[in-house]
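Why do we care about 3D structure at all? Because function follows from shape, and shape follows, mostly, from sequence. That is the central idea of this module. The next example makes it concrete: a single protein chain, its amino acid sequence, and then its structure expressed as C-alpha cells.
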Amino acid sequence: LIVSNATLEHIEAIPEVFRSLRRLASPGARMVHHIDGQTHMRWIKDIDPLNILRYSKFTYDNLLMFPGAPNRLRADDYLAAARSAGWSSVKVRGDVTADPRYLADARFAKEYRRIERLRLLTFTLVAELAA
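And the structure:
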C-alpha cells in the first residue's frame, strides 16, 4: 500500500512519480493519495481557493513558482498520469468541491477556463497495480 497525504500537489513531475511507484510496487499493490488542489495561502484560500489558477503559465512559472509550490494539476491530470503509468482501476473521489457561483464568477487563466475541471478542490486518487 502506497499512501500520501497532501504531498503530490507539491511535485511537478507527477507522471514520472507514478511510473516510479509502479516500477517499485508489487503486483496487487494499491496507492491512495489525498490531494489538495487549492491555493495554500490560508488567508486567500478561504475566499479564493483556486487563486493559483488565475495566472498564466508564464507568470506562475517565472514569478510565483518556488520549490514546493502547488503544481496546479487538476483531478483529471492525476487520473491520466496514473493510467498512462500503468496503474489500473484508477478512480478519483471528491472531498471538497467549489461553490458553483465562485467558479462562474472567477477569472481564471486560459488553460483553466473549463469549469468542470475545477469543481474538485480536494480529492483522493485510488489505483491498483494488476496482479
